[in-house]
């Protein structure tokens, strides 16, 4: 059973989600605004397994809430609900630290499936197989801890960043398309704006590349996608 936090100011949506998710066997807590959500997480960060976060909230919006929690190193899954499925809203949500998004109005079955997929990935992260680390060019990725160490610097990674980097490492030397990454890493629809991948790659380059503008490990393959090279030629 997972403990879920729903951040939603529309009572009929919040109560409907609570009822259906409790019927799925989850423990559900509901708050109406971003400030309350941050207080709950700050008071007991390990007690919440995932969050369903609406963008349109009174006071602090969902983007600010997600960014605030990620800045506090709370890296549990966030499923963001947007009033519109506009590309700029989706990208802004990913940049703030969301792990998945769903535009309103949504199908309850789709929301539950997306949430369970995020919880499964979180469970896999929490119980990894033997040493879940990869070292290349003086850099070490600890997938289980969601950290990247470069020299003496340690960078915390979000779940999405971790999963993307793991996928690239597993395809070391192979070109993978943006569409492949969206579908294989996050199980997102093929019509999702693929610029989300570009934003994540830009962030990973800042951690990994000595000169992010001249990458040697995270290479762009024009018109296709990206290729990870652990040992550049």
The largest sheet is:
5 strands, parallel
For the record, the CATH class of the largest domain is Alpha Beta
Distance between the termini: 48 Å
CATH topology of the largest domain: Rossmann fold
Strand-pairing-aware structural class: alpha/beta
Q: Give the total of beta strands.
A: 12
Key terms:
233 residues, alpha/beta, Rossmann fold, Arc Repressor Mutant, subunit A, 2 domains, five-stranded parallel β-sheet, four-stranded antiparallel β-sheet, 12 strands
Give a description of the structure:
The protein contains eight helices and twelve strands. With 233 residues, the chain is an alpha/beta fold. The strands form three sheets. Strands 2-1-3-4-5 form a five-stranded parallel beta sheet, sandwiched between helices. A four-stranded antiparallel beta sheet has the order 6-7-8-9, with no helix packed on it. A hairpin with a 2-residue loop joins strand 6 and strand 7. The protein is globular. The protein starts with a strand and ends in a 5-residue tail after the last strand. The mean pLDDT is 87.
């Amino acid at each position: 059973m997972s403990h879920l936090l729903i951040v939603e100011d529309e009572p009929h949506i919040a109560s409907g989600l609570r009822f259906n998710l409790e019927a799925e066997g989850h423990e559900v807590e509901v708050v109406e605004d971003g400030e309350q959500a941050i207080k709950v997480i700050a008071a007991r960060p390990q007690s919440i397994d995932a969050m369903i976060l609406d963008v349109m909230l009174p006071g602090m919006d969902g983007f600010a809430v997600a960014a605030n929690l990620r800045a506090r190193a709370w890296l549990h899954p966030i499923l963001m609900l947007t009033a519109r499925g506009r590309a700029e809203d989706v990208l802004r949500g990913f940049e703030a630290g969301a792990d998945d998004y769903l535009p309103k109005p949504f199908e309850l079955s789709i929301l539950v499936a997306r949430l369970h997929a995020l919880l499964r990935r979180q469970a896999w992260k929490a119980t990894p197989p033997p040493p879940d680390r990869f070292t290349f060019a003086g850099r070490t990725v600890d997938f289980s801890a969601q950290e990247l160490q470069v020299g003496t610097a340690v960078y915390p990674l979000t779940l999405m960043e971790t999963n993307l980097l793991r996928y690239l490492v597993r395809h070391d030397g192979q070109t993978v398309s943006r569409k492949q990454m969206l579908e294989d890493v996050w199980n997102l629809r093929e019509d999702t704006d693929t610029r989300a991948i570009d934003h994540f790659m830009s962030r990973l380059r800042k951690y990994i590349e000595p000169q992010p503008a001249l990458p040697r490990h995270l290479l762009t393959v024009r018109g296709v996608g990206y290729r990870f090279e652990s040992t550049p030629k």
